[in-house]
Specification:
By secondary structure, the chain is mostly helical. Helices cover 67% and strands 0% of the residues.
């Protein structure tokens, strides 16, 4: 069974906007050295634009030796004259501790000055500080206000974060339609996370009509930018024929791209395709390779399938100890087939000395999840007193449960055990079997 599509990631806010790179108009006016000399003279005469341009060169180390302290000094001079871009840069340097001691309060002061003049990057960073509680208490309403101002100026990260707040109900009621609106704005500007989340809304029909074609469109846009979750979900759609004809080769291609970025569900699904020969020839070695990557990240089904390949010697030499290792990893995560197979290995001494206690432990775990064969084998252990006190009532109940699932031989075993019980014991065991439901702990009789 392949891993299915992911839910929304709920990604954290985008990174702070950084000072803009220096413009290159000076190339039209002459040599950079000459331009820097001119800016120095203008800056000494209090020209705010020259102070800011020169500060940017010191910040970038372009035409002069990089000097954050000098950049901060010049930005501050321009900021004091009301230059919004310089105010933003001063705020950013306080925010990052570049050329000056880190100071969130000062960062907020200067971001606010720039933001109130309409600087979109400052509006975004100020929103982010309110959103994350940096220098101020968390204030979702203030965050929304500044994200909105930046978003209205086309700031893609602000559009995305605003969409997230509507998507997750932070500071506003959940509004999938509004989330879709702002995701679309950011997505159209190439914002990969917005493209992914917009695709997900179309995929699930949340805030927009369910539309597999639109989902594919936006998954593809994000996937082509390297978004592993989008690559994985796009692969699922080709794999299962959602909005497109089934195309195993394309599915494999996108699974591989996501898998190579460490996406464990993609690694597992890619392994399955090699294991089962879907869209490619069966290749046990490749299956083991990708199962291993996913298993090492804790993917329970990958751990189980990898154990099975070691257990049966598929694509590798039979290795019972490796099988036990991976069965155990999967069993501890509740994978019932792994629990059953692990119990068998302890029961029969495969790759380990026989251990009735461990066999009982894992048969019990699998049986409580409805594994009929585990119920049957556990019943035998209760019947024969293997590793546990003989308990015919428990044996009867377990045979009855496995018989209820149609396991061959269980009905006959149940009837044999009935002859070993008193009328009251039989009534109690039958009631326990009738009242038990899958997922509950097995009754003690």
């Amino acid at each position: 069974m392949k891993a299915t599509s992911l839910l929304a990631l709920g990604l954290t806010g985008a990174l702070l906007s950084a000072p803009l790179q220096a413009v290159t108009e000076y190339d039209k006016k002459g040599d950079l050295r000459t331009q820097i000399t001119q800016w120095i003279n203008q800056a000494l005469n209090g020209d705010a634009q020259a102070q800011r341009e020169l500060a940017q060169r010191y910040y970038d180390g372009e035409g002069v030796e990089q000097d954050y302290a000098k950049a901060f000094e010049l930005y501050s001079e321009a900021a004091a004259q009301g230059d919004a871009e310089a105010q933003f840069s001063v705020a950013y340097m306080y925010d990052m501790g570049e050329g000056v001691e880190l100071d969130d309060l000062k960062a907020i002061e200067y971001y606010t000055l720039a933001a109130e003049q309409g600087n979109a990057a400052a509006q975004f960073n100020l929103a982010l500080m309110h959103d994350e509680g940096e220098g101020v208490p968390v204030d979702d309403l203030a965050a929304i206000e500044w994200y909105l101002r930046a978003a209205e100026q086309g700031h893609a990260d602000a559009q995305y974060n605003l969409a997230l707040m509507y998507d997750e109900g932070e500071g506003v009621p959940v509004n999938d339609s509004k989330a879709a609106e702002y995701y679309l704005m950011a997505a159209q500007q190439g914002h990969a996370d917005a493209q992914y989340n917009l695709a997900l809304l179309y995929d699930l029909g949340e805030g927009v009509p369910l539309d597999d074609r639109e989902a594919i469109r936006w998954y593809t846009a994000a996937a082509e930018q390297g978004d592993a979750a989008a690559q994985y979900n796009l692969a699922i759609m080709y794999d299962e024929g959602e909005g497109v004809p089934v195309d195993d080769r394309r599915a494999i291609g996108w699974y591989r791209k996501a898998a190579e970025q460490g996406h464990k569900d993609a690694q597992y699904n890619l392994a399955l395709m090699y294991d089962e020969g879907e869209g490619t020839k069966v290749d046990d070695a490749e299956a083991i390779n990708w199962y291993t990557f996913a298993a090492e990240q804790g993917h329970a089904k990958a751990q189980y399938n990898l154990a099975l390949m070691y257990d049966e010697g598929e694509g590798t030499a039979e290795d019972n100890q490796a099988a036990i290792k991976w069965y155990t990893a999967a069993a501890e995560q509740g994978e019932r087939n792994a629990q059953y197979n692990l119990a068998i290995m302890y029961d029969e001494g495969e790759g380990t000395p026989e251990d009735n206690a461990q066999a009982i432990r894992w048969y019990t775990a699998a049986a409580s999840q409805g594994e009929a064969s585990a119920m049957f084998n556990l019943a035998i252990m209760y019947m024969n007193g293997e590793g546990i006190r003989t308990n015919n009532a428990m044996a009867y109940m377990l045979f009855a449960l496995s018989a209820g699932q149609g396991l061959e031989g269980a009905r006959e075993a149940r009837d044999v055990m009935a002859d070993e019980l008193s009328a009251s014991q039989l009534k109690t065991a039958r009631r326990a079997a009738a009242e038990w439901t899958v997922g509950e702990a097995l009754p003690s009789l």
